[in-house]
TrEMBL record:
<dbReference type="InterPro" id="IPR000109">
    <property type="entry name" value="POT_fam"/>
</dbReference>
<feature type="transmembrane region" description="Helical">
    <location>
        <begin position="95"/>
        <end position="115"/>
    </location>
</feature>
<feature type="transmembrane region" description="Helical">
    <location>
        <begin position="175"/>
        <end position="195"/>
    </location>
</feature>
<keyword id="KW-1133">Transmembrane helix</keyword>
<feature type="transmembrane region" description="Helical">
    <location>
        <begin position="215"/>
        <end position="235"/>
    </location>
</feature>
<protein>
    <submittedName>
        <fullName>Protein NRT1/ PTR FAMILY 4.5-like protein</fullName>
    </submittedName>
</protein>
<dbReference type="InterPro" id="IPR036259">
    <property type="entry name" value="MFS_trans_sf"/>
</dbReference>
<feature type="transmembrane region" description="Helical">
    <location>
        <begin position="295"/>
        <end position="315"/>
    </location>
</feature>
<dbReference type="Pfam" id="PF00854">
    <property type="entry name" value="PTR2"/>
</dbReference>
<feature type="transmembrane region" description="Helical">
    <location>
        <begin position="135"/>
        <end position="155"/>
    </location>
</feature>
<dbReference type="GO" id="GO:0016020">
    <property type="term" value="C:membrane"/>
</dbReference>
<comment type="similarity">
    <text>Belongs to the major facilitator superfamily. Proton-dependent oligopeptide transporter (POT/PTR) (TC 2.A.17) family.</text>
</comment>
<dbReference type="GO" id="GO:0022857">
    <property type="term" value="F:transmembrane transporter activity"/>
</dbReference>
<feature type="transmembrane region" description="Helical">
    <location>
        <begin position="247"/>
        <end position="269"/>
    </location>
</feature>
<keyword id="KW-0472">Membrane</keyword>
<keyword id="KW-0812">Transmembrane</keyword>
Amino acid sequence: MEGIVNWRGNPVDSRKHGGVFVVALKKRKIHVSPENLEDPQIIENATDDMTSLEVLHHTKDLSFLDKASMYTGDTDAWSYCDISQVEEAKIFVKMLPIFISSIFCYLPFSFFFTLTAPAASTMNTKIMGVKIAPASLYAVAIVIQFVVLVMYNRFIVPVLQRYTSARYYSSTSHLVRAGVGFVFAMLGTGVAALVERKRRMAEDPKDLSFLWSLPQFICVGLMEILSFVGLIEFFNNQLPVRLKPLSSSMVFCIVGTAIWLDGALVAVIGRVTRHGDKDNGWLDGMGFESTRLDLFYAFLTALEFLCFFIFVFCARRYLLRQSSQ
């Protein structure tokens, strides 16, 4: 992380921002008084390039962190933090519920690529007598992303900028965009469950075309372009100047953590659905004939439904808190 930050011009000092929590903990017994909320560093070092980028004003949220800006005569980085640093830490903390809920909304993402195409290989993969690799369905998601991104930037963004307020465009519209993407993730897992059910009930999977899996990739393409870009723009618009380089890193961290949790989810599902010492769990078996991907995708749909409403709750609470300031 430090290497990435330095590559961007060293806009983030981990000692300054992480020190807010350390200093607040050290001063936990000190009573916060408005008279002691001073900013000697901003006054004395007004020419400091990083501080002069943006000066944040004091807010009443997360008052515990205000203890870090209590001036006691020592301006060491581990003894005092100016108000701007404290407010930056507050902004980051207030975004954590959205960050965490987005991780769980991204749980189905990797399964579209690791399970759908191999399952489609058991179906009829010929189109007009030409055999097509099921992995080529991945290209559909990329094409969908390209088309939607161009249409969104060319038509939807100008309308939002013209007919909505700057506050709505900078925060609400991006969260709505991410939420719509998570809805498509839920639709994708629901469609996958129905397709797997149809494949299992067929006398011979070769009687079904692998194009039945196409709607899943359309949904995952819409999910990725809406939620991924929406979250990047949301973090980039809401984070203060010194933390803006972290916006893309936070979204990649969301995706990476979700993929890492997918492995744990598969292990848990396999253990819970297995009876005794037999390999009869939903995801047990070397072939797709013995697995119950239909039940697994149905479970993912229910899980995504729950995570989506948690995301909506966190996003709504964040927007209400922002509008009250």
